[in-house]
Description:
2 copies of one chain form a homodimer. Chain A is α/β, with parallel strands linked by helices and 360 residues long. Chain A has 11 helices and 14 strands. Helix content of chain A is 39%, strand content 16%. The radius of gyration of chain A is 26 Å and the shape is elongated.
Amino acid sequence: MTDQVPRSSGQAGAPRITDVAALAGVSRATAARALGGYGSVSFDTSRRVQEAAVQLGYRSNEIARAMRLGHTSTIGLVIADISGSFFYQATLAIIRTAARLGFQTLVLNTDEDFGAERRAVRELLDKRVDGLIIVTSARTGHDYLTNPPPVPVVFLDRRADDVDACVVSTDDESAARECVSLFTRHGHSRVGLLCNSSTVDGKRLPYTSPLAISTMVGRVTGWMSGMKQAGLPVRSDWLVFAEDDHESAKASAIRLLSQRDRPSALLAINSELALAAIDACHTLKLEIGSDISLIGFDDTAWAPLISPALTVVSRPVYRLGALALENLVLQISGSQFRPESVVLSASLIERASVDAPRGG
Amino acid sequence: MTDQVPRSSGQAGAPRITDVAALAGVSRATAARALGGYGSVSFDTSRRVQEAAVQLGYRSNEIARAMRLGHTSTIGLVIADISGSFFYQATLAIIRTAARLGFQTLVLNTDEDFGAERRAVRELLDKRVDGLIIVTSARTGHDYLTNPPPVPVVFLDRRADDVDACVVSTDDESAARECVSLFTRHGHSRVGLLCNSSTVDGKRLPYTSPLAISTMVGRVTGWMSGMKQAGLPVRSDWLVFAEDDHESAKASAIRLLSQRDRPSALLAINSELALAAIDACHTLKLEIGSDISLIGFDDTAWAPLISPALTVVSRPVYRLGALALENLVLQISGSQFRPESVVLSASLIERASVDAPRGG
DNA sequence: GTGAAAGCGCTAACAG
DNA sequence: CTGTTAGCGCTTTCAC
């Protein structure tokens, strides 16, 4: 009847609390109390247990502990990898803040694919994470979560309309509208928009789809309403959807900017696309600032150093990540408490890539 | 004697295999067999179990499973966050490759602090990860690991001299030497080196310390030997150690470049420092390419687009990460097999930031 | 202050 | 083909 089960999860031979107890000459319960610092243990016994523990190099098995306790002190981060700079800053903010609050972070990437997102969330739930931060790649269709979700969830950057969970995002619509406003104040009337597109299981989505990412929709909406507000026509051929990789994004930008009736100003929806636009301008020998004005979403280290220095929509990405995690932990510990969603505002950092249109 | 233990880890009320078994009218063992697809179960029983499982929305509890099986299908990544671009690419490569091979990734950041690294590894081991990828912030002093380590370990990018584990890195010394060679071929004789510095529990380390990071030491060594090879003096005041944040790195670069006897060429040890150097040049009104030639380690999306386009040492960072993970998984599954360490070579991408020194 | 024992959810050896 | 049962390592109630 002896069961051949490997001793301990993955670390054969690692000392168990039983070993500590044996060496200290006490029961498992007493050893646990002494090590856990709860209940009451005589000073002397406690010391003997401590010594036994260090002598054996004992460390508690967190898997067994999680099983007994019913929580793992682990949170899951599902991130769509929209853009390098966003991924980097948000991930760092979350990991750091989580560590500070006593949680570890399981990070899964979805490459903007909703199918991968579904699988990721399921796996994370299977691993019994205490909470989830999701940078979703769809605005609706979150059938992978019950409502309310089995564990606290915070949506980061992008809204989910069909899940009752807190969202931490920025006011993209206003930001896009302000960009249009800045362009028009400089005398532009032809403003283009360079977007990325999302996919579900490899299939591309139109921005009118209910699945389309909320930030993207917000920015498109802001651009449209900004144009209307200024009494300018909203031209659909100035709205371009590009793939995620640099080369095809550049190709899309070139296509947009080589139309005869091309825009004189361009808003790029993230920093990678801004870079692609810059590259396209170099190729087309278009001078940024005079031939074409440019604004990009998300500030980066290179933006002020490129020439001309890039005017950007600066979003508090790091703070967004930290806030998302803090909200999540609030929900995890404070049982019933549901924090409000928060919308931070973005700010325009004017540098040198926006100027009056040439001859206009 | 009823124990008030929360049902299931973190997800109260989640269906257990017992519930599935009950609904299907079979024993737990049979349900497990049907779901796990091992042993033999009659077709009809199997179908009944499957149906019960979907009806209840059953998902196996991976914590309990890990406890029983002795492994977690989780690996730990401890990353020092040397530079944004490295972190981003390496992390992405590891997470993606891990997912492909059936592992999830627990990511901890150490901010280049060795104390944090020690804590991170311990926590990860406590959580019973199946293996560890470490971007260490010290070349020696890895007292947090037994030798051999309790689980497979791969050191990424930076070597550890005191642990018997596989290392996946690039040939930094040769790369740095080649940079010096490129500079001298363009007629430079005064070549500076802009480095970052690492810390242990907040205390800064000299590069001669046995704790100093191997990549940094490699690059310093390569620079020195390159200079000697060319019969040029190695000036210690042309070797500058900068902090990690942009502003103080820029200040260090300014200090280096405003010496009367300043270098005419500069090698920056990572892309963030290259950017700081560029910023410093702007501030000092030094024209890159003519007043000062510049090379940076690690290629980035902005490097070809900045003006003048930056000459860089391109390292296969993504491949480095993927390779590290593959090596790790080989060790995890192939029990005794210890893969060889691998040193990939870097390549120089010549763009426009290196030219003949002005008047020289 | 300390020990015995139960049980978290799962798998697998063994018996039938 | 199926059921019984032990046990992974831990915490905690209950009894002493």
